[in-house]
Amino acid sequence: MDRLDAMRLFVRVAERGNFSAIAQELGVARSVVTRQIAALEAHLQVKLLARSTRRLSLTSGGAAYLEKCRVILNLVDSAESDLAGERQVLRGPIRLSLPLSFGIRHLAPLLLEFATEHPEVSLNADYSEQRSNLFEEGIDLAVRIASRLAPGDVARRIGTSRMCVVASPDYLARHGAPRHPDELIHHECLAYSGNPNPLLWEFLIDARPQGFPVRGRLQAGNGDVLLQAAVAGFGITCAPAFICAAALHAGQVHEILADFPQAELGIHALLPGNRLVPQRVRALIDFLAERLGHETAWRV
What we know:
This protein has 3 domains: 3-66, Arc Repressor Mutant, subunit A (Orthogonal Bundle); 93-156 and 266-293, Periplasmic binding protein-like II (D-Maltodextrin-Binding Protein, domain 2, 3-Layer(aba) Sandwich), CATH 3.40.190.10; 163-262, D-Maltodextrin-Binding Protein, domain 2 (3-Layer(aba) Sandwich). The protein has 9 helices and 14 strands. The protein has helices at residues 3-16, 19-26, 30-44, 60-86, 100-117, 169-175, 223-231, 241-249, 279-293, and strands spanning 49-51, 56-58, 92-98, 121-127, 141-146, 154-161, 163-167, 189-192, 200-205, 208-213, 219-220, 236-240, 254-256, 265-271.
């Protein structure tokens, strides 16, 4: 039994929670996978997985072993990637967690470009507004967009985007344009439900952040949905420029309250703690930083 291969197989089974899915991916019978996991458990003399008719779950020993396996395999991959980097050849998998709208609009084309330049690198990207636990889910790199990160996050800023308050010409013709953030309370506001307090919009007043209450009957956890509602005349929304720039240029919405800026959003490459970063992941971060740093598509 090759110990590293057994560790890799165990990590895959633990992350998917399914023997059959892994067997199908590997093109082998399910019994091959179950025998290899059983052999690993026999070698360790520890039960790693609790099996039932419905699902697999980690035992306490399995959870501890999974964490150690990820550290060991990351070190091995990092060492191999560094050697590959010396030969200017990147290889190996990269698991990514990406925001939905920004990921589809702006990151997907860049990832295809990176994959074309590095044919021995494989990319597995999850596009979602949900915040993954990078370490527990085996994510190598996440892109997060926020004005501030959580304490302890290990991240590099790879781009920026300003926020814009926008509404359609039809809405503004019917209701008028607020001249100060404190007038938003009298308007229909389309709020992003992913914020901790969706109905409190923050503006910089005399360079200091100040919250202003808003109201509205439509909320959503996706910026593209809110922009569509704003274009349709349902109200005012606060959107990142990377979402609303095209609509602004096309005249579908107009920017309002431009004299009252909001905190700039940072586009961050987030890593799973202070562990060693494989060369292929470092190369992808550098690639994204270079491309996004010169991005003009959402300059408004």
